[in-house]
Input
Amino acid sequence: MGVMSTDALSRLHRKPDRGGDRALLDEILDEVKVGTLSTVVDGLPWSVPMLFARDGDRILLHGSTGAGALRHVATGAPVTLTAFVLDGLVVADTLFDHSANYRSAVVRGTLDEVDVDPSHALDVLSDKLIPGRTDEVRAHTGKEIAATAVLALEIRDGQWITKARSGPPGEPSEPVWTGVVPTRIVYGEPVGATDGEVPASVRGLTTRD
Output
């Protein structure tokens, strides 16, 4: 079996009209909290869900400096990061024509150690998850920084793909109901583990549309 070229990996072969631009890529990466990082370790596929954040033209990920697999990808192994948003279930008149409205992204490249203060990278990651939280807590300690590996995946032209579908199903062949069931992620009421007032950053998650 032949090896697929990198050019082939950068093009949509099925329904290429659903391909998106860099603006869609940024939109997906800024909205999605968890992506799947994949590579090959000792000849076997390896994938792990990871929190991430886009910082301009790069994607930041972090983990423990003691994680063996993370050390492997830090050496320059080729990786992909995938992100997916389910926007709605598309209900058609036949099961074959059922579909989904979605936005997806795949970014390829190699991970590098960040060339900035690791505390900045951790702040970027934290503020994506809970905007404003970094202003409410103490600064990172030297011990915490030393125990954390922060890696960056550069977003380079020709090394990413986005794809999306939106809209209703096609015209039904019979007079039956068809349509779209929208989906979205919502935050529930915070459940406290200690006494005290809920921080503004946490409260903001539940009031955000």
Q: What stands out?
A: The longest strand covers residues 99-113. The beta strands are 34-41, 44-54, 58-64, 78-91, 99-113, 148-154, 160-165, 179-182. Residues 1-5 have pLDDT under 50 and may be disordered.
